[in-house]
Each structure stands twice: as C-alpha cells, then as structure tokens.
Specification:
5 strands, globular
C-alpha cells in the first residue's frame, strides 16, 4: 500500500499524493493509517496534499480511520485538494470539514487539483 502514498513534484513544489483510487474499504483504512508517517515528519503547515478518491469504496471503519488520521495530519497541512470525491458521503465530508476546520476543495481531475495546490 505504500506505493499509494508518495511525494511528487509539480511546478517545482513537493506534493504528497495519497491515491485511494479504486480501493476497497479495507485498503482505504490501511492507507489512511499510513499517511501520518509521511505527513508528521514534515515541517508544520508545509504539506501540500492531493487525495484521489476516484472509484474508492468506503465503510464506517474506513471513514473513522480517515478522520483519526486527519487529527495527526492537521498541523502539518498547508493545503489539501481532493479529486474523485463525487461519491464521497456528504455527511462525512461535512463532519471532516467541521472537525478539522479546513476546506476540502474538490476538482474534476488531478491536473486541476495540482494547479490549485501550487498557486500562491
């Protein structure tokens, strides 16, 4: 699963890509548990995060794990962009937004998300 979490470079900026695309709920859960290992070693408020949910499936446990990971990640995240979140449960999205006090802009594709992440 670690191949689904990696740093990429776009326009000279480092972006952490978390790729949940086409994952089962158990895979979403496993990836979510691993994300803080990448994020929390970075300087505070420095991480540009791109999360791709395209074709992913979720259950209650996967959602809970994602929320728990967000707790650890929050101080280290500068900006977050989501792709493929059109089937993401709306109530969970609102709860996560309220919980983290952070917006989660969604984009049609990775290219749009990357452009938004790197703009100043």
């Amino acid at each position: 699963m670690r191949e689904r979490i990696r740093f990429i470079t776009h326009q000279g900026k480092q972006i952490l890509l978390v790729d949940f695309s086409n994952c089962s709920p158990s895979q979403v859960e496993e990836i979510s548990r691993t994300v803080p290992e990448y994020v929390t070693v970075q300087p505070r408020a420095s991480v540009l995060l791109l999360v791709d949910f395209s074709g992913a499936s979720f259950d209650e446990e996967a959602m809970r794990t994602m929320k728990e990971s967000a707790v650890f990640d929050k101080p280290f995240i500068k900006r977050t962009a989501w792709t493929g979140a059109d089937k993401f449960p709306g109530l969970f999205r609102e709860n996560l937004k309220n919980f983290s006090r952070r917006e989660f802009p969604t984009f049609e594709n990775r290219e749009e998300a990357l452009a938004w992440l790197v703009k100043e």
